[in-house]
């Protein structure tokens, strides 16, 4: 059985180290998400493109519990598009908005209803597609 023994008091140096650690974690997570997006963009940009129509737009409220009695609220706007390759296929593009941006989320989603866009289709699986931010 392992045990951890902590001794001493927490001083200003400990708080500073903790804040630096938290900052590093936040930066690592943000960088990791950007890196994952970059990898996906590199992978799909060479996939063939087909024309698709954004036919369904939705905005839903999402609540995530922090586990400490608080909740994180945001809105997820989703654009659902349809394309043929050769069968009818569908895909989604989502964008997250802050808790106080419901009207912005609804306006953004509504502005794309009926739009024709180019989507990148996986040559190995025509049911798999990606609508890149740059192509909106």
Task: Please provide a brief summary of the model.
The chain is an alpha+beta fold and 136 residues long.
End-to-end separation: 56 Å
Q: Would you identify the regions where 5 or more consecutive residues have pLDDT less than 50?
A: 1-10
Number of domains: 2
Total strand count, please? Answer: 5
- Taking all residues together, what is the mean pLDDT? 84
> Strand order across the biggest sheet?
3-2-1-4-5
Structural class: alpha+beta
Number of helices: 2
Give the SSE string. Answer: HEEEHEE
- Beta-strand content estimate: 35-45%
What is the helical fraction, as a range of percent? 25-40%
Overview of this structure, please?
32% of the residues lie in helices and 40% in strands. 12% of the residues are buried. It folds into two domains: 13-44; 48-135, no CATH class. A five-stranded antiparallel beta sheet has the order 3-2-1-4-5, covered by helices on one side. It is an alpha+beta fold and 136 residues long. It has helices at residues 12-44, 102-112; strands at 49-65, 71-84, 88-98, 116-122, 125-130. Mean pLDDT is 84; it is low at 1-10. The chain is extended and about 60 Å long. The longest helix is centred in the N-terminal third of the chain and has 33 residues, at 12-44. A hairpin with a 2-residue loop joins strand 4 and strand 5 (125-130). It has two helices and five strands, in the order αβββαββ.
């Amino acid at each position: 059985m392992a045990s951890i023994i902590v001794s001493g008091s927490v001083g200003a140096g400990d708080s500073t180290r903790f804040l630096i650690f938290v900052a590093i974690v936040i930066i690592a997570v943000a960088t990791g998400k950007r890196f994952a997006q970059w990898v996906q963009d590199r992978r799909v940009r060479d996939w063939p493109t087909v024309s698709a129509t954004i036919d369904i737009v939705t905005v839903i409220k999402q609540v995530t519990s922090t586990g400490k009695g608080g909740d994180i609220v945001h809105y997820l706007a989703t654009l659902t598009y349809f394309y043929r390759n050769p069968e009818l296929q569908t895909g989604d593009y989502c964008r997250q908005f802050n808790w106080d941006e419901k009207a912005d989320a609804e306006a953004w989603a509504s502005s794309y209803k009926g739009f024709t866009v180019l989507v990148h289709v996986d040559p190995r699986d025509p049911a798999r597609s990606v609508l890149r931010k740059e192509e909106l």
